[in-house]
Amino acid sequence: MAAEGAARRRLSAEVWIVLGLSVGQSAVYALVQIYARLTAETPLGAQSTALNPSRSPRPYLDLTYQLLNIGFSLVPVLLVLFLLSEPGRRATARIGLDRTRPVRDLGAGLALAALIGLPGLALYAAGRALGITVEIQAAALDSTWWAVPVLILAALRNGLLEEVIAVGYLIERLEQLGWRPAAVVAASALLRGAYHLYQGIGPFFGNVAMGVVFALYYLRRRRTMPLVVAHTLIDVVAFVGYTLLPEAWLEALRLT
Questions:
Q1: For the packed helices 147-161 and 225-244, what is the interaxial angle rounded to 10 degrees?
Q2: DSSP E strands: which ranges in the chain?
Q3: What is the pLDDT of residues 233-254, one digit of tens each?
Q4: Rounded distance, CA 90 to CA 217, Å?
Q5: Contact yes or no for 34/198 (Cβ under 8 A)
Q6: What are the residue boundaries of the structural domains of the chain, listed by start?
Q7: Residue 85 — φ and ψ, nearest 5°?
Q8: Cβ–Cβ under 8 Å, residues 114 and 210
Q9: Helix crossing, 23-38 with 181-194: angle to 10°?
Q10: Residue 145, beta-bridge partner list
Q11: DSSP string of 187-221, one letter each residue
Q12: 86 phi and psi, to 5 degrees?
């Protein structure tokens, strides 16, 4: 029993460390940011946030910073894959991040993207109208030849980081700790909502709903690849679409 208790404590500590290095850290910052936003003199609906800001006025230095940021932010993904690996079983196979079902994963990813993306856009517009969602500038990069490729890489980074850690890793570890399915789903979904709080109250609830759907899918299918595909597609449409759509369209969609 003592050995079992020590193993559980070690596993719990591992989860807190991983979250502290990744999406858990983002959730803490987002909680502070939403407090700052709600207590500011400017109403929440009149505030804005940029998701992919430029990091330098010099284009090639900006590109360097963008690539470094994307690369280093994926290190926690490598860490959890290392931690989840077992003798004779790769972590990618354990959480379904392999290429054994490319067609089915792509189809499921497309379906999930449509299920989440379209209502998400409507929820964002509703949140802006109600004043509970900040204006989101999905891409604030300068018009350079590398802007679109970098935005696609940023979308892929988001998909890998969030789905591998907040879904695959977290669910696997919480189950090992004896959590019930409902509690596992709630933890994964609330974490996803928490680290999006900097965008306002509306995105919090929208991402919690997305987290519930994705967690339930993982519990049933044990595959993160469709979730990564769906998340990447949603972000590519948001990031690249924001860059390419005319200003009048963005205003009509309440995206600017």
A1: 150
A2: 48-50, 135-137
A3: 999 999 987 666 656 655 655 5
A4: 21
A5: yes
A6: 2-252
A7: -70, 145
A8: no
A9: 60
A10: none
A11: HHHHHHHHTTGGGBHHHHHHHHHHHHHHHHHHHHH
A12: -135, 155
> Which pair of structure tokens corresponds to residue 179?
């959590």
d(CA 210, CA 189): 7
Is 243 within 8 Å of 151 (Cβ atoms)?
A: yes
pLDDT averaged over the chain?
A: 93
Q: Give the Cα separation of 166 and 186 in Å (integer).
A: 11
d(CA 225, CA 204): 24
- Residue 163: per-residue pLDDT: 98
Identify the burial level of 209 via C-beta atoms within 10 angstroms of its C-beta, where 0-12 means exposed, 13-18 middle and 19 or more buried: middle
- Please check whether residue 255 is in contact with residue 242, taking contact to mean a CB–CB distance below 8 angstroms: yes
Alpha helices in 39-96 (DSSP H): 59-73, 75-84, 91-94
**102-130 and 225-244 helices, crossing angle to 10°:** 50
Q: Summarize the chain as % helix, strand, coil (round to 5).
A: 75, 5, 20
Tell me the one-letter amino acid at 42: T
pTM exceeds 0.70: yes
